[in-house]
Amino acid sequence: MSKPRIYEVYLVYVDQDKCDGCGECVIFCPVNVFDLTHKAFPVRARDCLGCRTCEAVCKPEAVIITEI
Asked: Vertex 48, ends 39 and 3: CA angle to 5°?
């Protein structure tokens, strides 16, 4: 019998009022969750690994990752 897999799902939120459009989250996200026009937007949130690198590099603290 195989070991059950555990799937983690994350909610990726960008506060558009705080986002300054620097693009650091786009650059550092290892799975390309974000796209950037004028501000960051999580277009591939279901791919999020939960590493929280985007939160760490976001100086205005606009990116919030929550495990659901």
From this structure: 175
Q: For the chain, give the number of residues.
A: 68
**Residue from 10, 3, 1 nearest 47 by CA:** 10
Q: Which residues of the chain have pLDDT under 50?
A: none
pTM given for the model: 0.85
Neighbours of 14 (CB within 10 A): 20
Q: Which of 8, 7, 4, 13 is nearest to 54 (CA)?
A: 13
> Which residue ranges form the domains of the chain, and what is each CATH number?
10-67 (3.30.70.20)
Q: In this structure, which amino acid lies at residue 39?
A: K
Tokens of 45: 């949130």
pLDDT at position 24, please? 98
Q: What is the DSSP-derived secondary structure letter of residue 24? A: H
